[in-house]
């Protein structure tokens, strides 16, 4: 636990903690801590499992893909609910973006035998939603249209090293159809598509192997949470790791009349045909393949021997897409701050789903509607937050993080001036295991917040979280999310991409937090991710939905009500030191001198510690000069912005954060510009990136020192 900020506060807490535990809240004076505790307990009493379930049913009633009529109706529904709940300035913002819709797709094996792929999910007994005729067939967002007849090659996960292995075996994929599998650990399918495109393949088929999310993991739907024979993982293949959002407006908002670049010039628009398959449809291809036997790691969960293929199996693939400009809608509402209306805490969840979106995202959407109901009730009872809480329902997250990116680009200047932080909830719950992500400066406050919440297991959420982290460390099964960089930290402070926090962190320079509960979940992005699945496996009692609303709201309220924003920059410094330490393990590092950057990390840490101490003293005294308070909070909000390099990271100018980035797989990538330069053994760029890091550290140290001066005079 890293939340103890300094000796004076710790002593103070030791002597008074038992009497008035509220005094321990980071960023609050004793008096405002007491008030905050009252507000929070009122807030926590409002969300109920019944209401969570009722809202979840509304959102999971019908498929609601980005751009669809149903998804747009749900935008209207959210706006109406928010107005009823008492939110203010509710508005639906329209963005005209390059969207994607399936028209038709067919896949036929024409040699050595004939097989017509089904490309649909079959109904599941007991799950009436799975019979809904509005469920689409197999498709991948942003695939191009086309037709090809070609041999099929098995390329394992479709990563660059997989093609190296094929090459060594004398197998070329040029002009052929590659068959790859979704992989564990998760790798974004768009990276698989780009890799296949670069290798010259004519098309890519991505299937769900039972080893990854099916019967090799456990019982399948409807007997268990894993993916059944016919489940299809849809998804987009947009190259949004290059630049997210509308491919035709890279870096600016797709508001009416905005300049649009030709789609041929858009770096994030794929130029390959792509289709997802269930294992039912992949098996006939795999079991008929010739060529060398695939290596042991390439063998999957099907009861066959996997071969590399390349000659014998030929297939005919035809995909027709309707890709073109269409409107996406972001719903925005707020509770105006009572004291500081121009300081914003921003919350968001995406609305669009590949089908019903039981987990992804409707569990989060239901939690958001319960959270806003509780906020509205508090405001009506005179418990309005000090700062403004802005809430958004994003659209087209699944396509390319599109709605949040366009909104963020539209309001970038406002957000850089006013935003305190962004708190994202995408999938609220697929099970009981809490995962919390935060930029390092907010990790201590997030951990402290979880101590005030009750987990359904009976423990407090902090202890439940700790048990989860320890269990996951022990089994060394690192999924998409790793735990924090410091052994004492629970929060995952390594933040990649793959959800709506991206524009806020990487483009605008806002501190971000991400919340969610996870469990065994094999129906991701399939039609079986629905109400039935949630009520049988994910969260049958809706207790984790309720807890998500509570946690999300309490975290937001602490940021919105704090006297002094609960940032911990000493914690940030130790994380950065760790990032640099990991980088130093790279080869050829003797060519790069990081002495200057290291010294600046020490200085930043020392300044952070001094500020922590001054703030704790000032808060404990209960007396803070309002002008000092304002200067301090404004200054602290600037720290994250100062990690931005306006030029962006080399090759990806949209991604401006120098500490946080993402790999093409969406995986986290710390010190992205520096790390990629070191990996490429590009020492001039590495030196230049190290200098940028050093200067940003200097700038923030200077800023913290100035704030510390302010508070002491
Ligand atoms: Zn999602």
Account of the protein in words:
This protein has helices at residues 7-16, 30-44, 49-60, 69-85, 160-168, 189-198, 210-213, 279-287, 362-380, 397-400, 402-410, 412-418, 443-450, 461-475, 502-508, 531-538, 543-561, 569-583, 595-621, 626-641, 672-679, 683-712; strands spanning 88-111, 115-116, 140-141, 146-154, 177-181, 203-207, 235-236, 273-277, 309-335, 340-350, 387-394, 419-424, 433-438, 512-518, 660-662, 668-670. By secondary structure, the chain is α/β, with parallel strands linked by helices. Strands 1, 2, 4, 5, 6, 8, 9, 10, 11, 12, 13 and 14 form a twelve-stranded mixed beta sheet that branches. Strand 15 and strand 16 (668-670) form a beta hairpin. Helix 4 packs parallel to helix 9 and helix 19 (595-621) packs parallel to helix 22. The longest helix has 30 residues, at 683-712. Residues 1-22 and 478-483 have low confidence and may be disordered. Bound molecules: zinc ion.
CA-based shape: globular
- Main sheet summary: 12 strands, mixed
Mean pLDDT score:
94
Number of helices: 22
Regions with little confidence, pLDDT below 50 for 5+ residues: 1-22, 478-483
Distance between the termini: 31 Å
């Amino acid at each position: 636990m890293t939340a103890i900020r300094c000796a004076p506060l710790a002593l103070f807490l030791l002597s008074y903690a038992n009497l008035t535990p509220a005094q321990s809240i980071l960023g609050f004076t004793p008096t405002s801590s007491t008030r905050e505790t009252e507000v929070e307990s009122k807030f926590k009493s409002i969300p109920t499992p019944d209401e969570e379930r009722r809202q979840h049913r509304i959102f999971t009633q019908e498929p609601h893909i980005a751009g669809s009529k149903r998804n747009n109706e749900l935008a209207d529904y959210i706006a109406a609910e928010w107005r009823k709940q008492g939110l203010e300035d509710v508005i639906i913002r329209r963005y005209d973006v390059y969207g994607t819709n399936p028209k038709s797709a067919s896949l036929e094996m024409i040699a050595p035998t004939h097989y017509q792929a089904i490309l649909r999910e079959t109904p599941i007994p007991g799950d009436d939603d799975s019979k809904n005729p509005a469920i689409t067939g197999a498709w991948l967002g942003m695939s191009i249209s086309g037709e090809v007849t070609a041999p099929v090659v098995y390329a394992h996960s479709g990563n660059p090293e997989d093609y190296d292995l094929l090459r060594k075996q004398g197998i070329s994929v040029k002009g052929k159809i590659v068959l790859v599998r979704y992989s564990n650990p998760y790798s974004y399918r768009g990276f698989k598509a780009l890799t296949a495109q670069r290798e010259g393949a004519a098309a890519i088929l991505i299937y769900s192997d039972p080893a990854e999310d099916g019967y090799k993991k456990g019982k399948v739907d409807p007997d268990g949470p894993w993916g059944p024979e016919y489940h299809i993982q849809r998804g987009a293949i947009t190259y949004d790791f290059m630049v997210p959002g509308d491919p035709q407006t890279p870096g600016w908002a797709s508001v009416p009349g905005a300049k649009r670049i030709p789609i041929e010039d858009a770096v994030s628009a794929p130029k390959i045909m792509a289709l997802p398959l269930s294992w039912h449809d992949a098996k006939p291809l795999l079991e008929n393949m010739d060529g060398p036997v695939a290596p042991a790691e390439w063998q999957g969960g099907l009861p066959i021997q996997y071969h590399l293929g390349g000659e014998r199996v030929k297939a005919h693939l035809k995909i027709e897409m309707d890709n073109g400009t269409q409107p996406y809608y972001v719903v925005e509402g707020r509770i105006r701050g009572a004291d500081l209306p121009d300081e914003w805490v921003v919350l968001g969840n995406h609305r669009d789903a590949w089908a019903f979106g039981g987990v992804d995202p409707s569990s989060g959407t239901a939690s958001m509607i319960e959270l806003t109901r509780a906020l509205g009730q508090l405001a009506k009872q005179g418990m309005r937050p000090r700062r403004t809480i802005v809430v958004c329902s994003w659209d087209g997250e699944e396509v390319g993080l599109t709605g949040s990116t366009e909104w963020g680009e539209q309001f970038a200047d406002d957000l850089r001036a006013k935003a305190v932080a962004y708190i994202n909830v995408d999938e609220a719950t697929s099970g009981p295991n809490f995962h919390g992500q935060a930029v390092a400066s907010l990790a201590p406050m997030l951990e402290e917040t979880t101590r005030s919440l009750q987990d359904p297991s009976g423990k407090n959420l902090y202890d439940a979280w700790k048990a989860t982290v320890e269990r996951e460390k022990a089994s060394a099964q690192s999924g998409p999310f790793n735990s924090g960089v410091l052994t004492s930290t629970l929060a995952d402070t390594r933040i990649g991409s793959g959800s709506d926090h991206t524009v806020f962190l990487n483009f605008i320079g806002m501190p971000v937090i991400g919340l969610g509960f996870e469990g065994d979940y094999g129906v991701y992005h399939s039609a079986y991710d629905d109400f039935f699945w949630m009520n049988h496996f994910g969260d049958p009692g809706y207790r984790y939905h309720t807890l998500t609303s509570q946690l999300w709201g309490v975290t937001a309220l602490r940021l919105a009500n704090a006297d002094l924003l609960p940032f911990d920059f000493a914690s940030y410094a130790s994380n950065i030191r760790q990032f640099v330490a990991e980088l130093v393990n790279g080869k050829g590092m003797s060519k790069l001198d990081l002495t200057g950057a290291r010294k600046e990390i020490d200085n930043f840490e020392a300044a952070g510690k001094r500020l922590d101490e001054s703030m704790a003293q000032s808060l404990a005294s209960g007396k803070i000069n309002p002008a000092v308070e304002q200067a301090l909070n404004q200054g602290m909000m600037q720290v994250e912005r100062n990690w931005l390099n306006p030029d962006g990271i080399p090759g990806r100018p949209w991604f401006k954060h120098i500490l946080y980035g993402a790999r093409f797989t969406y995986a986290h990538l710390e010190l992205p510009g520096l790390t990629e330069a070191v990996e490429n053994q590009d020492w001039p760029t590495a030196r230049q990136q190290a200098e940028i890091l050093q200067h940003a550290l200097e700038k923030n140290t200077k800023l913290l020192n100035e704030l510390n001066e302010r508070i002491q005079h």
